[in-house]
Structures are given as C-alpha cells and as structure tokens.
Structure of EGF-like domain-containing protein:
Amino acid sequence: MKLAFGLLQLSAASHFRAGGLQYRTTSDPTKYEVTRYMGWKRSSAGYSGGCDQSDIDNKVPSTSLGSESITGIGSVTAMYIVTNIEDSALVDSGSHFCFGSYTFQIDVTSVTSFEHTFGGCCSISFQLDDGSTNSGSFGYKATVNDVTNSSPQFASPPAVYLMKGCGGQEYAVAPVDPEGDTVRCRWSLSSEVSDMAWSSMLTQFSLDQDTCVVTYHPENDKATTGGSKAISVQVEDFDADGNLLHSVPLVFIAVVSEPQLPNARNPSFVNELLYTGLMHGDDEHHDLPPALSRKRRSSEPAYCAGRPSFIDPPASTDKIVATYTEGEAIEIVWRAEYQLEGNSFTDIDRSQIVKPDGMTCSEFDTSGVSKCTWVPDETQIGDHPHCATVYDPYGRSSERRCILIQLYEACDEGLERVGKYCLPPCSAGYERDASINCVDIDECASALALCTTIVETCANNNGGFTCPCSAGFERDATGTCVDIDECARKTDNCANTVEKCINSVGSFSCPCASGFERNIDERCLDINECSKETHDCTEFTETCENTFGSFRCTQSSAFKMMILRQAMMRGY
C-alpha cells in the first residue's frame, strides 16, 4: 500500500491546482462534517479521460488522489466530486482543470481537537516577483481546536485569473462563520502548505487580515511574461476570549496573463490559445528562466480597461435570505458584459460559478445572462456561498462576485425569521436593533410621527409618541391646537407702562411703548424728545417739556412777555 501511494503521488506530480478544508457541526455531537475542495489538471484529475459534464450531472466521485491524515482519527481517502470544469477549446490544454468538493463525516467521540493534513510532490513551477520560478511540494493543513464549533465557510475557487499590469484586481475570500465568531485571515506557512506558501519574493500580493481580501500589486510584478502564482491563505476563527477555534486552508493558483485584444486591421485575430504555457506541468521541474522587466510601464496596458463586469445581481446584493419550502426553487440571475473600444459586448465566453450542491446554472446566453436554479433539500438548511467569475473571449476576467444564500426552515406560527433565529415579532412601536433586541422606535427622530407642524410638538415614549400643543398654543373644544392671546389674557410678562404687548402666532412680543426706547441693557427708558429735538413744539412761542413717555408744549416765557407788552401798549 505504501508503494502504491508513492506511485500515486508521483503520477499526480505537477497536477495539483487547488485545495481546502472546511468543517461543520451536525445534529449528532459525535459526528463532525468535513468538506474537502480539490482542483487538478484535467488530464490527471481522477477521472478517466478527464472529467466531463456527465460526471457533474451524475455526481461521479473521482478515484483516490492520495490519503489525508487526521490526528487521533486516522487516514481518509482524498477524493472529490467534480463541480467545475475548464475545458474550453480557447484555453491551452495545460490550463484545463477539474475542480469540486466532497463532504463526509468523521467520528469525533475520542477527540476534542485535531490536525488534518494532505500533501505530495510535486507542484508546478510558480513565478516570483523577479520573474524567476520555483517548485516543490504541495499540500494543505487544517487545525481544529473545538469539534463542537463550525469553521468559517467560504466558496473555494478553482483558479483566479489576473491581467498583468492592471491595478484594482482583488480576490475576496468572503468567509462567513455559522456561530458569528471573529474571523481573520493570514498567509499560510510552509509548515502548512509546503512550497506553496507566500514568501517575501511574492510582494505582488498582499492580504488584508481583517477583510480577508487578497490584492494584486502590478508594480511589484517585475516579470516580463505572465505566470502562475501560488496563493495560500489560512482562514481562522476565534472565540470571545481570542482563542483560536479553527485554522482552515484555502490553496489555489493565480494565473497572471497578458490578454490579446483584436486590432483594427484584424478584429478577430488572437495569436494563441489562452494561458498557453502558464501552468507548467513538468514533472522534471525544469524551471523557466527568469524573465525580469528592466523598466516599468508608464501606464496600464490597454486591455486593463473594459474587463467584464456584472450588471446583475447588483453590487449592493450580498445576501439572499430564503425560507425552505419543500420543492420550492430559488432562482438567481447573473448578467454581465465587457467593453471593447467603447462598445459593450455580451458574448461571455467562459464562466466559473461556485454553487450549492444541486444548483444548476445555464451557460451565459448572447445577452450575457445565466440563470441559476436551486431546489434545496431539508439537509441544506444553512448558509451557502454562491460566487461567479466570467471571462470574455480574450481571457480577461471579471471580479469574483459572491452572494451568501441563507436558507432557513420556516418558523412556527406567531414567530418571525430574524437571521438564523425564529423570534416573536416586536410589539407595535418597537424594532430590532443590530443585536436583534426589540427597542423603542423614536418616531419623533425618524419623522414617523404625524404631529401638526408649528402648533404641535412630538414627544416620544416607549412604544409610541404623543403630540402636545406647542408652547403658546392650547387645545380647543374640537381638539385643535389654537393660538393663546397672552395680551388679551394679560398672561404676558411685558413691563407695564414702558412696554406694550403684541400677540403673535404661538407667542407674543413686548416692544417699547410709544415714547420709550430700549437701551443696551434691554430696558425701555423714556425718550427725551425735547433734548433730542424730536418734538413738534412751535419755535419761540412754545417750550418743550419732557414727560414720562411723552412731552408737552407750553407757552414760552418770551412769548408771554411779548403778549403782555402788546397789551400794555394798547392801554389794557
């Protein structure tokens, strides 16, 4: 058996493309569910003559591709059921692959934690930043520290295609944790994935540990040609105290190529098959000679603009929540296009769609549309990542768009679905917060209150609100808030004599009374019309005398003397 296994590993040399492991708890605490992802070169993928559509339709498992070791449990056969195939006539046969998964259960009665490993020799040649290549062993390793907890779940890709020299290209792992544990990502170590580990010679890729997004940095890719790059990430979840629960591997190949666009002289001209020579499956490890770029591009290549993009589902759609009903189908429509010389095209040549078991997706039609239909069974209740990548005829790839399908069982009567829980509905006037607790709705702050503006104010209370009359208004016999005339009721606070009360809608004002003016201390003081010469007394004949709040005009003494003299002269 050892000899046979050794021969198998030798025959599988250079054919490994992708791998990964994920775990779920089951209703039986002694059983732990394992999902293995694998990708292999199509001609050596565990299917006689290469995998084909009938293998997908009939869920045909591959032959054994080796043995995995699980500490404390034993060994299990490494195999998978193909779900994705790359066999396009436009693609170099060396880049054809079979990819799929296999789900099985292990007995964890005797273990609380374990390590799960797989590996072999030898990998294809992987290109580094400077254009040189290396190869060696491949594999993956998972660490499980709590068999009562599920690992992060994510859609593992068969391969990722990038355009050399183009910025803004990312791969989002998009993990979801069934228990809501904290999830982070890191580069895998050589002790976990052997020679497929990230190194300082691969700075053209960076990993955001919190968002689990891998970014391609073309400015660090100094090779003059495209090539295959090893991408290996450990997706990890932690409990509330920061203890590691799982570390599960995601291993795949990123193919960096230079798409060939048609030119004006020959619009349909394509020089060679897509990705020719980029996945070197040479068992003898003849590394390619270094291809080092001696100068940087001053701008991005023309093919960077117009890469395929998704129109549907909208970018804002990251989740679809559905209630399981026996025999009821879930449908998702994907629609994509690409640009060439300012024109839009929808002849999507190839696609890779990661989907739940049992989902079928049509080929993209001439309108750039693919329809995916899924009739789940009761055992599939839970979260299911659903991801798509499309390619135009020139090998340019879209972003990898992922949607999380959350399939839940129907809630009992009187309960409502809130994420993965069935809960009583909130009472009127309450809504659920981010912690799914029912909290009061502040109708006043959210503009849900129907209080009459100006004459009423909104007063929030638990479960509702009231509309008391605004200050300066009172409710009449009909229930309407009407203005209070504070002046007529003498409920104003105007200063007697020096101020007068003027009623206004909802209030009143106290301007200074006639003959008074407001000083800098805001007090109404008497205006001295005489000194300010604002009186209307007749000059010479009258004298202005100021009074409190007014003035009076009395006969002047000079005028009196004149009258007296005139009288004396007349002999009076």
